[in-house]
Amino acid sequence: GDSVTQMEGPVTLSEEAFLTINCTYTATGYPSLFWYVQYPGEGLQLLLKATKADDKGSNKGFEATYRKETTSFHLEKGSVQVSDSAVYFCALSGGYSSASKIIFGSGTRLSIRP
Amino acid sequence: SAVISQKPSRDICQRGTSLTIQCQVDSQVTMMFWYRQQPGQSLTLIATANQGSEATYESGFVIDKFPISRPNLTFSTLTVSNMSPEDSSIYLCSVGDQETQYFGPGTRLLVL
Predict the structure, then answer these.
(1) Which of B7, B45, B103 to mutate to test binding with chain A, by most A CBs within 10 Å of its CB?
(2) Do A102 and B42 touch (CB under 8 A)?
């Protein structure tokens, strides 16, 4: 079935560092890809999404490009802030075996040092 | 976007008891989903709740343990029955489709 594999955490960076969180997926069909973020003590929020190959999702300085050839959707940010400390989940939906369900990766905890 | 509220936001329960979690959406939606997030883990889909039909449960989840109601297009409940400490988790409802899903704030459950 469909699955998502993302970078193990925790990831600790200094403020203004460059961030990459790797995410790869396995799916049949043409899934949509997502990054969700969970700030401490809060619910899950959609950060960005891409619905077809070569699309780039972006929000709050974060970007991710849907790469069908490498089945990847890596999350990047050029200069992280302390307020970016959270758990980040890569996810997919809409593959032939996942349909309207969302399949989540294991999550990557990000901590940013001032 | 949809605004989703859940009640209760948190609870501490004794083993063997049951807890019903409510999910309210500010607009009519076709599909509602219930997820579990165990401590330090990712989200796992429990079931999909469509109005007017039985909920569809994922592998490893059964109706006797997690009965779900969906009386109308804006509301759903999930009951965690005969609880054990292993049921301590965050339970989240969500609405949407394969393009976008919105999540409620979650219900933090601790079973002693």
Answers:
(1) B103
(2) no
Q: What is the largest CA-CA distance in chain B?
A: 39
What tokens were used for A51?
């619905």
Answer whether B101 sits within 8 Å of A32, measured CB to CB. no
- CA dist A66 to A53, A107, B24, B42, B45, Å? 5, 18, 33, 22, 24
Tokens 């401490």 belong to A40
Average pLDDT per block of 10 residues along chain B, 112 residues long: 91 97 94 90 90 89 96 95 96 83 92 96
The encoded tokens of residue B78 equal: 């999930």
Q: Which two tokens stand for residue B71?
A: 């009386």
pLDDT value at residue B2: 84
Distances (CA, A) of B104 to A19, A93, B3: 28, 18, 8
Amino acid at A43: G
Distance from CA of B109 to the nearest CA of A (A): 13
